[in-house]
């Protein structure tokens, strides 16, 4: 006899666990459809014409899952019909990629590579057996997430089509699914539709989650009373201490009925007071009726926010004679609002510290639907000091909302579209209507979640009428549903009547800014903010996609890709590094570039925190973005794991609810100066910090305490740009070059900065060393006589083919070089041995820090192979992983009978205004004068001469 698997629908749909021993009335039933299905690919799109819905399919597949997770599809090749723009198409024709275009060794650099690929129609089929007890009930097919368009046939009869990208596909089968055996046939088509949401949208593209075909999450046939709770939307009012409930009742009995509706809210926190039920007799005359009821939440309802994510469950019961139905809805009492130019949560100021989630799930190629996976993601994000997540051009499954509810995360949701680069919005195309339909579905499915605080149509729109369209879209939702805040699109446009602005203006590196950005064009400091930028707007501003700072690939990560997406791009980059003889430096490049990446993110985040009246930021990204030519912008990998160069504890010092801030006018100091550093705090904790005493200290690199003090004890309100006092300290006792660490603490919160102090005067050492801008006759004569020459190249004189065309700057690479058309800088900072004697008088770590800003801003990167293959470097420049050239700022060699030290840094021009250059030159000369200056590799003088323009 066939066994039927009945499970409680409540547990399926809402993911609320049933307590052990709890009595549950089996009012709603479901048949779990996970497991074996019949399957067939339809690559020629003949299935409808040939009526595959009227026959048994021949193949097999396991669901939930995708074709790729089942090993089905085509091999990737040069003709794979990807979804997603490829900005740098050189892979298709450049000789250097020829080996990766061969059958059996296909490796692409654009994004993670699926083991199998398929774009088109595919058919899924299952025979189900309906019990007699289901006769006369409300019956539905529930598909939690399908990718993409689903068309359903029941016993050969077409039922309908659904195409939501962000919500479940639910088909009404009442009066069609009679007791007995039936054949369900589902056709899924993952090709771009008439309503083109944009080929780069993370809801559909191969850039991130992959263009998968299948059904995931909960798959079930459900049976409910013919009189049933169709929908419940709850509108909390924390001021009135009540909830307005809009309950839609479905009636498939075909006649008017009288029923009793009962509501009871229960707090999920142990020890909370009990609330009273509310009951009403209702008259139902049509197929669907919406009832409004107000539910009192007691004298002191528990509020939901990031610090106290208190949740309630509203149980809605419907009874009419023997017909019973119920629905449980999770909600929170919260009020997320715009107050002037800032956000408030329940009347208290808050600041959004966010990152993006771009549907990056390499193991499956599609998002998880279980709550544990999402709890892990949010917990990792919280450990790095974040309280906010933006879903870029896609909507996550219910489990993401459930997890965010539990942990107190503020979510920005988008309606599955990035209408740009060939897909405009607002121009009267089918997408315009689809966005309204999809937003309606998203709000209906997830609108009760307290974490669902913000919504936009999608990302960075385009179209001649997009401003008008999105202005109307915002107005529509502001009027219809006040439970959250609305903006036009992530990135733009900024309009007067939206609830908050999303704009890339307030950040330290703009797209296309290159070496003209704050971090590359201005000497290092930490006292600027975005007050002047946001001052022209009346609404809260969230800075769009700040950061985008790259790090070198972690090739150890390749083995982690055990699922359907593989890091073949990393294999290409690893081969390139090995081919240039630097494979052993891979881990060093990762760690050194990672330290610079963190420094850049710290500068970005602190600038936002220093800005009075600011709303918050959204990073791009806390974890890596594998698409768009590979954008390694995360301090975490795509699996939300640390890479080894920064911990959550260290990162959360400058990214947290409370962050002490030193307003440093510069990072480089002379020992005749006095530190004069205003101190402030960004304080967005659960309430005021009373009787707080900020303390500060300065230690040297050995960890010895040099100075310390405290600022006045005070009560610190919630807010930012709160002045705490000024640190004043003379540096005259520091007689040698030092890297100092300034630390400021407020209770358990601590932040720190590296400062560099140099002596104002240095001895005129080593007159016998010739320092020159070019290897002229005098320099050659010196070398021929066995002398020592320090060749310091003037910026702009290095020949293009020797490295002069390599645009270097202080910062890391922004996004990547492929997608930005080689926006400078195209390098990732320096790598050196800090104990090398050449750097003894120039304190440094193995990576870039602020004292290297001057060098990187006055230099060219020398391609070492242009002098001699295998020439060692004292200070390396880390090249873009795509080109992986051996680059140096400082190297040495034997030339003639003498010894030559070559640096791509101009250490002579304007030296009096450049203490770092003066100190580095001193350190190099001290090294050259000593016994340890013993270059090994010989380089011909003509090769050295050929480095610079104007030399033979």
Automatic annotation (TrEMBL):
GO cellular component: beta-galactosidase complex
EC number: 3.2.1.23
Any Pfam family matching the protein: Glyco_hydro_2_N
Keyword Hydrolase on entry: yes
Residue span(s) of domain Glycoside hydrolase family 2 immunoglobulin-like beta-sandwich: 228-334
Keywords per UniProt: Glycosidase, Hydrolase
GO biological process, alphabetically ordered: lactose catabolic process
Gene3D superfamilies (alphabetical): Galactose-binding domain-like, Glycosidases, Immunoglobulins
Domain Glycoside hydrolase family 2 catalytic: 339-487
Domain Glycosyl hydrolases family 2 sugar binding residues, every copy: 33-212
Single GO term (MF): beta-galactosidase activity
Reaction catalyzed: Hydrolysis of terminal non-reducing beta-D-galactose residues in beta-D-galactosides
Family the UniProt entry places it in: Belongs to the glycosyl hydrolase 2 family.
Name of protein: beta-galactosidase
């Amino acid at each position: 006899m066939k066994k039927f698997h009945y499970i409680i629908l409540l547990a399926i749909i809402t993911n609320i666990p049933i307590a052990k021993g709890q009595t549950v009335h089996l009012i709603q039933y479901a048949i779990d459809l996970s497991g074996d299905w019949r399957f067939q690919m339809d690559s020629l799109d003949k299935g409808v014409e040939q009526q595959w819905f009227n026959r048994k399919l021949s193949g097999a597949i396991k669901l939930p899952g995708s074709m790729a997770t089942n090993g089905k599809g085509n091999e990737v090749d040069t003709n794979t019909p990807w979804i997603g723009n490829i900005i740098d198409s050189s892979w298709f024709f450049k000789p250097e990629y020829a080996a990766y275009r061969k059958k059996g060794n296909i490796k692409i650099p654009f994004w993670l590579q699926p083991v199998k690929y398929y774009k088109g129609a595919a058919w899924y089929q299952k025979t189900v057996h309906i019990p007699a007890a289901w006769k006369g009930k409300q019956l539905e097919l529930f598909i939690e997430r399908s990718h993409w368009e689903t068309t359903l046939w029941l016993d050969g009869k077409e039922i309908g089509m659904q195409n939501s990208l962000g919500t479940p596909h639910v088909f009404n089968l009442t009066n069609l699914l009679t007791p007995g055996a039936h054949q369900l046939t589902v056709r899924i088509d993952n090709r771009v539709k008439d309503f083109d949401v944009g080929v780069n949208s993370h809801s559909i593209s191969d850039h991130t989650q992959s263009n998968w075909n299948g059904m995931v999450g909960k798959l079930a046939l459900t049976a409910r009373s013919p009189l049933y709770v169709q929908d419940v939307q709850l509108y909390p009012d924390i001021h009135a201490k009540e909830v307005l409930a809009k309950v839609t009742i479905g009636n498939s009995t075909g006649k008017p009925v009288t029923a009793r509706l009962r509501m009871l809210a229960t707090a999920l926190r142990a020890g909370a007071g009990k609330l009273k039920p509310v009951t009403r007799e209702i008259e139902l005359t049509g197929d669907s009726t919406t009832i409004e009821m107000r539910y009192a939440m007691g004298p002191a309802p528990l509020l939901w926010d990031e610090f106290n994510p208190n949740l309630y469950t509203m149980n809605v019961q419907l009874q009419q004679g023997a017909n019973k139905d119920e629905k449980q809805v999770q909600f929170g009492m919260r009020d997320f609002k715009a107050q002037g130019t800032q956000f408030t949560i329940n009347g208290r100021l808050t600041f959004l510290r966010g990152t993006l989630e771009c549907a990056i799930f390499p193991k499956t190629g599609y998002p998880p639907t279980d709550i544990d996976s999402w709890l892990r993601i949010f917990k990792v994000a919280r450990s790095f000091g974040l309280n906010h997540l933006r879903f870029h051009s896609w909507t996550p499954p219910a489990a993401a909302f459930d997890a965010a509810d539990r942990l107190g995360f503020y979510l920005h949701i988008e309606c599955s579209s990035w209408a740009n680069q060939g897909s405009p919005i607002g121009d009267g195309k089918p997408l315009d209507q689809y966005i309204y339909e999809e937003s309606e579905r998203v709000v209906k499915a997830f609108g009760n979640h307290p974490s669902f605080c913000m919504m936009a149509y999608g990302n960075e729109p385009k179209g001649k009428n997009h401003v008008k369209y999105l202005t109307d879209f915002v107005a529509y939702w502001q009027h219809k549903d006040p439970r959250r805040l609305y903006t036009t699109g992530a990135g733009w446009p900024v309009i007067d009547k939206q609830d908050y602005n999303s704009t890339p203006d307030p950040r330290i590196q703009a797209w296309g800014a290159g070496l003209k950005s704050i971090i590359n064009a201005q000497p290092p400091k930490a006292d600027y903010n975005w007050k002047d930028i946001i001052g022209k707007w009346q609404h809260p501003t969230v800075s769009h996609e700040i950061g985008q700072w790259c790090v070198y690939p972690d090739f150890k990560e390749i083995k982690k890709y055990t699922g359907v997406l593989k890091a073949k791009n990393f294999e290409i980059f690893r081969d390139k590094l090995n081919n240039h003889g630097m494979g052993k430096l891979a881990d060093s490049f990762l760690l050194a570039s990672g330290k610079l990446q963190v420094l850049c993110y710290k500068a970005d985040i602190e600038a936002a925190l220093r800005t009075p009246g600011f709303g918050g930021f959204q990073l791009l990204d806390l974890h890596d973005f594998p698409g768009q030519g590979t954008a390694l912008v995360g301090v975490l990998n795509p699996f939300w794991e640390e890479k080894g160069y920064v911990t959550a504890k260290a990162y959360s010092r400058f990214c947290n609810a409370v962050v002490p801030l030193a307003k440093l006018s510069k990072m480089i100091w002379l020992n005749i100066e006095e530190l004069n550093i205003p101190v402030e705090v960004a304080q967005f904790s659960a309430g005021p910090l009373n009787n707080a005493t900020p303390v500060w200290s300065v230690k040297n690199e050995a960890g010895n305490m040099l100075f310390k003090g405290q600022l006045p004890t005070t009560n610190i309100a919630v807010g930012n740009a709160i002045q705490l006092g000024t640190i004043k300290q003379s540096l005259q006792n520091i007689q040698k070059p030092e890297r100092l660490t300034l630390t400021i603490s407020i209770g358990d919160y601590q932040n720190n900065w590296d400062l560099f102090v140099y002596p104002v005067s240095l001895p005129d050492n080593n007159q016998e060393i010739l320092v020159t801008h070019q290897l002229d006759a005098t320099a050659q004569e010196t070398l021929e006589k066995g002398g020592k020459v320090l060749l310091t190249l003037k910026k702009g004189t290095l020949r293009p083919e020797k490295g002069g065309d390599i645009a270097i700057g202080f910062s890391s690479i922004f996004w990547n070089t492929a997608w930005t058309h080689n926006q400078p800088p195209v390098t990732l900072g320096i790598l050196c041995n800090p104990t090398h004697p050449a750097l003894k008088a120039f304190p440094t770590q193995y990576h870039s820090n602020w004292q290297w800003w001057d060098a990187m801003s006055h230099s060219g990167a020398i391609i070492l192979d242009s002098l001699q293959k295998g020439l060692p470097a004292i200070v390396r420049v880390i090249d873009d992983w795509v080109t992986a050239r051996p680059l140096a700022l400082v190297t040495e060699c034997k030339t003639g009978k003498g010894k030559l030290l070559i640096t791509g840094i101009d250490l002579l021009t304007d030296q009096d205004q450049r203490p770092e250059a003066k100190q580095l030159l001193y350190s190099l000369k001290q090294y050259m004068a000593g016994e340890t200056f013993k270059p090994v590799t010989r380089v011909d003088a003509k090769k050295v001469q050929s480095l610079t323009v104007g030399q033979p």
